């Protein structure tokens, strides 16, 4: 196990910190993840539900 954990960011969050946490996990810019998520919401429609589920399932940074 590499020791990396996925969590919701509390330092660079916009809503719940899901996109920023995913960006930190993959070492990417959070803006790229937010743009991809927005496109997913617009084109697929299920992005909102996926974000809500991710916000519930992924633990916050302070718990890790």
From TrEMBL:
Domain of life, source organism: Bacteria
Record has Transmembrane helix as a keyword: yes
Alphabetical keyword list: Cell membrane, Membrane, Transmembrane, Transmembrane helix
Record-annotated Phage shock protein PspC N-terminal domain positions: 4-61
Membrane-topology annotation of the record: Single-pass membrane protein
Matches recorded under Pfam families: PspC
Signal sequence bounds: none
Entry's transmembrane regions: 34-58
UniProt keyword annotation of DNA-binding present: no
InterPro entries noted in UniProt: Phageshock_PspC_N, PspC
Cellular location(s): Cell membrane
Protein name as annotated: PspC domain-containing protein
